[in-house]
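Appendix C. Worked example: Pyrophosphate--fructose 6-phosphate 1-phosphotransferase
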Amino acid sequence: MRIGVLTGGGDCPGLNAVIRAVVRKGVGTYGHEFVGFRDGWKGPLENKTMPLTVKEVRGILPRGGTILRSSRTNPFKIEGGVERIKANLAELGVDALVAIGGEDTLGVATKLTDLGVNVVGVPKTIDNDLNATDLTFGFDTAVNIAMEAIDRLHTTAESHHRAVVVEVMGRHAGWIALHAGLAGGANVILLPERRFDLADVIAHVQKRFEIDYSPIIVIAEGAMPADGDMVTVTGELDSFGHVRLGGIGNWLAQQIVQQTGKEARAVVLGHIQRGGTPSAFDRVLATRFGLAAIDAVNDRDFGKMVALRGTEIIRVPLIEATKELKTVPAHRFAEAEAFFD
Ligand code: F6P
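Step 2, the predicted output written as structure tokens:
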């Protein structure tokens, strides 16, 4: 078979590990051939290809980012986009695609499957908010990066009697905030899933200062106070209609300064959480996903996504992955609040 591989959406540590596993097993075990599509769905749309042999995937396991590059192009938003993709795949003799991506990329994969394109999906996002898989690769690395930052911030905060607000990624889901906050011993953890009471946060910060303790507040980029809306709290939205990175973190640090008279700083981790080398856990998960994805292609089991369920890698219908976001469930809010006393 001739198989196309693409990576779409925001990059994520472990993408290269998936590509490597797909190609190594695809060539070595099954004797398939590969075409690399560059820049997500823009690749098959504009015939942007690159060779993808065992040689290209040598040495990429520890490398962050994606050798195939990425984009947020959605062919369904482009006039005649889908027809162009189908024609290009036919012209290149590509029988099947492995699409590695998050909600948007896999959403396109789902629709293309319905239109007769042979696709197998691989879930990725540092946010861990994809449905139908217990975990996504990239999440563990992002949490470790944020945890290390929080560890460092504790010592500088206490030396200067300051509060530090650490803003982590997570527009709709607070998985990174919850796990990094727990791992880093944060005093307050604020998630997008539950609006927070600013007065409670301020009272807690004040209480901590009274016992000579410099509080660390971890906040997800999409968290909001109970009585604020995104625009008034964070200023203008960006050109995609999203809250600006740093908007809520800086706002909260300012509120702490104004309402407690203490010093506060905001640290916005942003894309540092996405870049660089994957953790061992993410390398293994990404590799297992890649191996399972090429097995699914080889079995011609299309319209499926590989997923982690417990400790096993299973196949689920692609539609399962994208029907809703996996946010932090209510029963886990107590973990975020346990140190908020
Ligand atoms: O999907 C991962 C993510 O990192 C989100 O947490 C974040 O809101 C978004 O991507 C940022 O996207 P961009 O790279 O387009 O700024």
